[in-house]
Amino acid sequence: MSKTKATVLLIFVFMARGTSFLFSKSLLQNLAPMSILAVRFIMAFIVLGLIFHKKLLASDIKCIRHGVMLGVLYTICMVFEMYGLRFVDTGVSSLIENMAIILVPLFVSVLTRTLPKARTMACAALAVTGVGLLSEDQLQNGGNGQGLVLIILAAITYAVCIMYTERVSHDSDPVTIGIIQLGTMGLISLVATFFTGGPEIPQTGKQWGMMLILVLLCSCFGFAFQPLGQKYLQAESAAVLTVVNPLTASILGILVAGEKFTVLKFAGYMIILSVLVFYNRRQVSVI
Predict the structure, then answer these.
(1) Cα–Cα distances in Å, from 50 out to 28, 32, 44, 274?
(2) Distance of CA 44 to the CA centre of its chain
(3) Which helix or strand (DSSP H or E) is residue 276 part of?
(4) Domain extents for the chain?
(5) 11, 98, 281, 286: which could join 242 in a potential S-S bond, CB 3.0 to 4.6 Å?
(6) Distance, CA of 76 to CA of 66 (rounded, Å)
(7) pLDDT tens digit string along 155-178?
(8) pLDDT bucket at 286, cuts 50 / 70 / 90
(9) pLDDT digits (tens, 9 = 90+) for 216-261
(10) How far is it, in rounded angstroms, from Cα 58 to Cα 135?
(11) Which of 84, 80, 83, 85 minimizes the C-alpha distance to 23?
C-alpha cells in the first residue's frame, strides 16, 4: 500500500471513530459504560473473526502478543473516554482526546532524550490554552472537573496507543493484530462488567441500531484497519490525521445532539483546530 492510500484509509478510519462519541454518549443514557464496551467489541471481534478466520488461525505468538497489548492499552483509553463522556460534550471530548497529535512528538522527544522543536512546544502551549477555554465552558454549563480529567487521561493513553501501534504494525499482520486487539478489549470489558453492576445489553431497536453502528463502522472498520494504515506511515504522521476525528465529532454534536455552542467553546475550538491544522501543514511533507 502506498503512503497516499494509507493516508486516505486513515482519514476514513478517523472519521468513523469520530462518530463513535455521539452514539456512545447516547447509549450511556441507558447502559453502563463497561457493558457498552463489552457488547461493542465482542460483536466486532466475532464479525471480523468470521471474515478473516484464516488470518486469525495463522497468527503466531508475536502477533497475538502485540494484539493483546494493544487491546489492553486501548481498553484503558476507552474506559477513560466512556466515563468522561458522561460529563463532557461529545465535541469537547473528541477535541481534547485528539490532543494526541501534540503529545506523540513530545513523548518521542522524551524517549529519544532530545528536546522537542520550538514549533511543537508552541503548538502544545496554544493547545493547552484551548483546552483551558473548553474546560471553563464545560464547568459553566453543568460539566465537572472529573469528566475533564478523565478525557485528558484518555488523550494521554491514546497517544501511547498510536505510538505502540506504529511500532508493532511493522512486525506482524496489522489486520490480525487489530482483530486480536478487539477480542482482548471485549473480554476485558466483559469481565469488568461483573465488578461494575453486572452485564447489560441494549433493550430497544434504537439502542441496537446505535450499537450496530459502533460495531460495524467504528470498531470493525475504525479500530481493525488503523494498524493497516499506520503500517505505511510514521506515528507522527498518523497523529496528524486525527484532526478529522474531532471535526466529525464536533459537527455531529452540534447538528445532531444539539450541544450548545457558546463563545468560550467557539474560542477553544478555533484555537485547538488551528493548532491541529497548523501542525498538519508542518507534517505534509512527511505524509
Answers:
(1) 29, 28, 10, 42
(2) 16
(3) helix 263-283
(4) 3-283
(5) 98
(6) 16
(7) 899 889 888 887 887 777 888 888
(8) very low
(9) 988 888 766 777 777 777 766 666 676 677 777 777 777 776 777 7
(10) 47
(11) 85
